[in-house]
Amino acid sequence: MQHLTVLGTGVLGSQIIFQAAYSGKDVVAYDLNDEILAKLPERWEYLKPQYLRDLPDATPEKLDAAVARIRPSSDLADALSAADIVIEAVPERLDIKQSTWERVGQLAPEQTIFCTNSSTLLPSDIAPFTGRPERFLALHFANEVWLHNTGEVMGHPGTDPAVFEQVAEFAAEIGMVPIRIHKEQPGYVLNSLLVPFLNAGAKLVVRGVATPEDIDNTWKIATGAPAGPFEIFDVVGMMTPYNLGMSGDDPEMREFAEYIKREYIDKGWLGKGSGRGFYDYSGK
């Protein structure tokens, strides 16, 4: 599968786009309008030095070649016209994902394989909206995909086993370590472990127990871990915990969502990718 279309160019969508192009795939980057897409060159310039820092085989020439393999498009029919595989990375709301896949199913070529990068939702809740559920499954990436390179592959009961294996092979082709999930599980393996950890940190803040900095330091000093929950939130970006908190049933996580909107999102502090979140990454 050489031709990839990624739906959504946010924090993780843009990483998937760049990593696939870096691995030699031809990638169409789709988003809702050209104003959003116009910001992508800035995003590539943000990612390039991280590849040079973290990957021994990265060179400026290889990174420039990756950018040359990326084509932006705000026309969904155009973006899907040659797609062998589609990876969706739109906001983490079931209604948005369902409506997106309904449109994709009407426009994509017959042979196209459909993947969601949803962090928490089950493929079986989305599959019927695609019109071809046997070709639909999840391929889930961790943030900083070039470095934390797991590719969790999770089908639903109606996924064709041959399609499942094709996606696992594709994940390996773009530098991921395929993790085959044998049964539908909200949060896969990674987020089944990570989300309770992040939520615990969030609740300590909304309860007024400790500051984000002290919570992070406690975890890092006591366990030797490289990052605490709020450093991880900064990598993930503020919009994902905000959307999850506002759409969930936990009143404390809703309070946390309102807190990060008021104190961070409304100020344009969206996480590490924007230069500032709980911590300041601007170097100023």
UniProtKB/TrEMBL annotation:
Chain ranges of the 3-hydroxyacyl-CoA dehydrogenase C-terminal domain: 187-281
Keyword Protein biosynthesis in annotation: no
One BP annotation, GO: fatty acid beta-oxidation
Keywords: Fatty acid metabolism, Lipid metabolism, NAD, Oxidoreductase
Pathway where it operates: Lipid metabolism; butanoate metabolism; Lipid metabolism; fatty acid beta-oxidation
Pfam families associated with the record: 3HCDH, 3HCDH_N
Residues covered by the 3-hydroxyacyl-CoA dehydrogenase NAD binding domain: 4-183
Keyword NAD: yes
GO molecular function: (3S)-3-hydroxyacyl-CoA dehydrogenase (NAD+) activity; NAD+ binding
Positions of the record's site feature: Important for catalytic activity: 140
Catalytic activity: a (3S)-3-hydroxyacyl-CoA + NAD(+) = a 3-oxoacyl-CoA + NADH + H(+)
Protein known as: 3-hydroxybutyryl-CoA dehydrogenase
Organism the protein comes from: Leucobacter luti
